[in-house]
Amino acid sequence: MDSELQRCITNYRPLFVYFLTPLPLLELMPTLRDEARKQIQDLRDRPREQVDIFLKELLECGEKGIYRSFLDALNKSEDQRWIHDFMIGNLSNELTDKFIYHIENAEAFKKLFDIILPQLNVIDARTLVTVLRPWLSKGENDDLNEKCKSLGSTFALPYIISSALRKKPTWIKELYKHTKEANYSNEVEGKLAKALADYFIFDENKENAEKEEAMDSIECNFLQPSTSSGYFELHGFINKHKNDAENSTPNEQQMELDHEEQNAQEDCEDLDQMSLDSDEIVDDMIDIGSGKKQLCYPFKNYELRGYQHELANLAKRGKNVIICAPPGAGKTLVAANIIQNYYETCGNEETKRKVLFFTPTIVLAQQQNDRFKEYLPSKYITDYRCGNGDNASLLGVKDLDVVVLTPKLLLNELNSDDKQKFVYKLNEFGMLIYDECHHCRGGHPYNNLMRKYFGLQNDLDKLPQIIGLTATLGIGKAKTKDAALQEMKQLCANLNAVAGVVTVRDSQNKKEMEKHIANPDESRLPMNMERGDPFFKEVTALMKNIEQVMKHFAEEPISQAPDYKHDDFDKNMFKRWCVETKNELTLSESSHSRDARSCIEYLEVCGDALDVYYICRPEAALKTFMGETLDTQKQDTPIETFLFQHHSDAMDKLKKLCDDPRCANPNLAKIKNCILKKFAEVPNSRIMLMTQMKIYAYALKDWMNEDDKLKVFQPEVFTGKQPSRDIRGLTPQAQQAIMKSFKSGQHKILISTPHAAGEGIDVADCNLVINYNFLQNESLTVQIKGRVRKRGGEMVHISSDRVERRDRLNFYKTHLMNECTDMLANFVQENQASYREELISLNKLDMKQFQLEVLKKLKEAQVQKRNDEFLLQCAKCKEFACSSYDLGLVDNQHRINITPEFRQKYEIKEHPRKDKRLMGRDWRKISKVVCKKCGHEWGIEAQYKGAFILPLIKIEGFRITEKATKRPYVVRRWKNAPFVPQEIDISVVLRQLVDDE
Ligand SMILES: [Zn+2]
């Protein structure tokens, strides 16, 4: 007897019993005896006995080398090759372990089906065959289809299941996935999917928490669709069930279809990256942890930790609360638990009122939606809506169990006059959860939504439960305990948090929480602000020169510029001085005001350059120094010639100094050291460099990309969506994409502005945050620390004395805040009645303030609506430009003047951002419109619908005088102008232009 074969059968019997299909092997093993062949063929429908006989025959046939030919047959049989690989150890260790686990527990696996089987009569056997088709041979497929026809669905099912059982178990995931995608349109499928999930995927996690990570990656592989044909055919399967679903309304169906389309797209993207050849599925399974995108969000049945129970308790009893816990404590999981509890415990009527989960930003909405899909059992349908793209509509939200959305979207809906809108009142929902709820103050959309909520207090329908989630309550400008407490109470009042603030109080729970939240090591490196190098000297010398000239000729004294030679240059103060002085000059009647303004304009550019110079490389400072605002400067007066000459001389010198080692920024070397040190310790690190402004972020990226050691980490910029100066913000889609590639490791360094990455964005693996000289408030301090999620994470502050002073104040404020949060929680517990009264009065106060603001705005608007004539003069040279009566308002946003007289007053200059689209899409920038006399910027010329070019006026460029009273105004925005140009229809304007020609 072949001892090798004997050993093999002893070892692998359970595997063979459950997975081997002898029939196709018979053809490949001609030496087996006919008697055995016949027996096996006769037992067609009893696979287990087939295997028994087959193995017996292997042992008894007495053929030499039978073991070898068995292996060869397995290897030749396409769909059983994996068994061969498994036997010769070609599968990865983790996967082998996994198989062994299942084989050892195979009885339980079979039992599972025994339990489900009697109930399977509702499943259409043919659709199940379709699900399995990629795993079936042609013969099996035909055979099973034939059985469906002759036996009917119910009796065919056992055959199908038993045949499925001998396939490589990847089909289980497929079945699980697709029943899940069909939203368990029938209960049995739901049970089956859940049972499969429990058995195959998640049970082990409970028993063996340490293995969690390894398991996750295996899940990933199991979850991938294995063939394209299987996937697309299944759409029919799902749709069939959908159409069968009795209760689905057209809305629901449409919604689901949309959802599906999206999934299909995602899947296709992944399919592109995967090889579909069945041979390679095994390779794919071996390729564990390759960082492939996880397609499904398997519900993990997370158990709450002790402290999370403490956080969830009050809310689960239906109370309005603010849940306050540090970043990383798992607040979203707590929220998911509260939501699940809400649906499980509320009555039938109540379940119709769904849950809204608000996030302040779109990126967060997408991220939190993903989390809920993972945290909530899949019978709860979750989706996100935001003011962007396909998800911008609230269609169907009332049928979703959890909608993650931005507050703006709902506000617009509530405010809309549309008779067909989807949401009329907030109490159509049962629970409102505000993520990052500390924003619920003043004019934030959160607070505006809550004002709508308070407006419903006398409504007959029950108000929704309100829950706030935050890491910090925020204390505004408060510097004393009383003031801080008051700020917090105001937040509670705004969120109607009648049951107060919930924090972790239990000492045991506190200890547990400490273990789970990352507390980064913090260190500080002083920033080098004492430069005194030739670059610095050159810029400051020019500034000094300009100041002296200005003092010399200006008749009216100009206030002293803030000290720019100081080691700690305060850019904000300097900027403010520039703006104020320019305003004074606009109002001034002095004949020298034009020259004085030119001086300020040059100084402003120098100040900007100096500011960039402290943070970035001299190259970036030089770029700022040559700023485009100087492009339109004229040289018509001796002063203007002087300024131009000195500026270009300085520029030439500065260009040569960029490469001078004396001018290198020592602070960048500090950053580089930190980064390289971290990567040396932990090669797969993720580092975030936080900086104050977009302009710095891009300059720092340039620097890194030109550094041989840093560029390998592929630094990328991550900013908010608001543009600043001339730099565009990132769209939510771009933000999302960058976050993804940061997580995956494509970019290992992210250079971020505080508001973009400070809040909520979860980068679990970020292990170093470098805080590069930016000012923050106490809430942001906590949030940014929260970015360092990885245990053993580190935070380095590189900051100037001034920023450090502010940081110290923040440190104090953070402590004050934490202390007051506890005080508040105590206060609410001990003084329920007076706390509630206080909330009511604070609430009235907020409402009153709000009404006052509204009134004030209305009044301002009334002032603006004056019909008196105003004259527009060039803000710089005071040349008369036009009358307010010549202006027209088109598209409700652009002010134009198309009179021939006005055309004589201006000239056009090339625009550096030519062709950029303006609001409304119909308009594109063409060129700058500047004063013909002095070159001051008056606005832009823009092309309307690719044809007509019209001048759009910027009010900032003018001094405005009331004709009757001669009273002058300086206005920076149109909304503050004392008049409103007459509205004209764009078609009238265009006709007039055509007539003129
Ligand atoms: Zn002018």
Automatic annotation (TrEMBL):
Keyword vocabulary terms for this entry: Antiviral defense, ATP-binding, Cytoplasm, Helicase, Hydrolase, Immunity, Innate immunity, Metal-binding, Nucleotide-binding, RNA-binding, Zinc
Domain Helicase C-terminal: residue ranges: 674-828
UniProt-listed SUPFAM superfamilies: P-loop containing nucleoside triphosphate hydrolases
RLR CTR domain boundaries: 860-991
Similarity section: Belongs to the helicase family. RLR subfamily.
Subcellular location: Cytoplasm
Catalytic activity: ATP + H2O = ADP + phosphate + H(+)
Pfam families tied to this protein: DEAD (PF00270), Helicase_C (PF00271), RIG-I_C (PF18119), RIG-I_C-RD (PF11648)
InterPro entries: AAA+_ATPase, DEAD/DEAH_box_helicase_dom, DEATH-like_dom_sf, Helicase_ATP-bd, Helicase_C-like, P-loop_NTPase, RIG-I-like_C, RLR_C_sf
Official protein name in the record: Activating signal cointegrator 1 complex subunit 3
Enzyme Commission number(s) from the entry: 3.6.4.13
Ranges for domain Helicase ATP-binding: 312-491
Disordered: region residues: 242-261
